[in-house]
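Subject — a protein and its fold
Encoding — discrete vocabulary of local shapes:
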Amino acid sequence: MPHFPKPYFKANRRTWYVEANRKQHVLGRHPKGEPFPMKGKDGNWNPPPEIWQAYHAVMATLPEEPSDESAPQAHHPFVRSIIDSYMDWLKKRVQAGDKAQRTYEWYHSYLLSFLKFTDATLTIDELQPQHVYQWVDSHEGWRTSKRSAMISVQRAFTWAAKAGLLKSIGGRSPLYGLEKPAQGRREQLISVEEYRQILDLVKDPTFRDLVELAWETGTRPQELFTVEASYVDLANARWVFPVRMSKGKKVQRVVYLTDIALAITQRLLRERTTGKLLVNSDGEPWCGSSVKCRFQRLCMALGRQRALNLGLMPPRLPRLTKSQSQDPQVRKQHQKAVDDRTKLVRELCRAHGTMYSLYSFRHAFCTQALESGKIDAVTVSILMGHRDTTMISRHYSHLTQRVDHLREAARKARGA
């Protein structure tokens, strides 16, 4: 569909323009004293009368553009072909070692979903942000994933623009400036008491090792999943990741071990001298899904314990006698009562349980290190694997939750 030139406003210049015949024409300054204009519901600007007059005057003097029949038709690639090209490029980066396999899988899952949602004949000139909005809104189960999904599609077309695949639409991504939901922040912290309670409920020794190392080192979850026996430097009590396995792949990540973390590492090295250091009870490396399942079980166990302590658990049902079990109607009523009790117990466990994640332990490590007052922010940032203190000041402001600590800091600041 041909584009018809319409006036538009640039607030930073307080000036009206119209773009016609691939040239920008000035229509005039916005009248002084008038408020800045707003776009209407149709997405078009509503200029003042004098701008409309200038617009019509400019349009009357412009030569006619060639008709659609005489103008050469631009070839617009399909959206599908652009995404396929991006995935091929990403796969080659994985094979070269520049990207991780999980990065490819992350993009592949979202982009494949987007392609299934959109029309196979959709071309890049037809692609609009509304296609992305409609796609993420169709997934009601996506809460925190919507932003990630939108980033994956936007990134594919940003790459295509840099690769010169979008020349037919001027070389700029059609999803440039895509409005995305604000990034959420993990504010959950784990106290020492909560940590001890968690350890008391964790029966699987392999999961216990994972939890203890997360608490003792403040390591990123992905670093816990990928650390190998060959990365261990026992002489200096640390894990040294290759640069290609470090976040950002520019600075080598080094994890320094406490006495507890060192003891766990030494024991694990005696069990396996090659491959992944941390594996689950099935001998498989940990991943986000397997850890989430364990924390879901832990959440239910915590909820059950707290509900018991509060006296909220419903009493157990008595077992049927031999004569009662022979009556089909009695058995049916008893089974219904058992199902109702099971449902109530699950609801109580979910209501009183707490869903943790490995990142909660990382944030607790950072917060407690800063709160102790014994370690400066620069040293903490090194232990966390940050390049500088920017991440700590921007994303690790958990000390605002510790009122007593801040009141004590204010008292010391005044020399009290």
Remarks:
- The chain has three domains: 8-61, 79-169, 190-316+350-416.
- DSSP finds 16 helices and six strands in the chain.
- Residues 67-71 have pLDDT under 50 and may be disordered.
- Residues 5 and 381 are 53 Å apart (CA to CA).
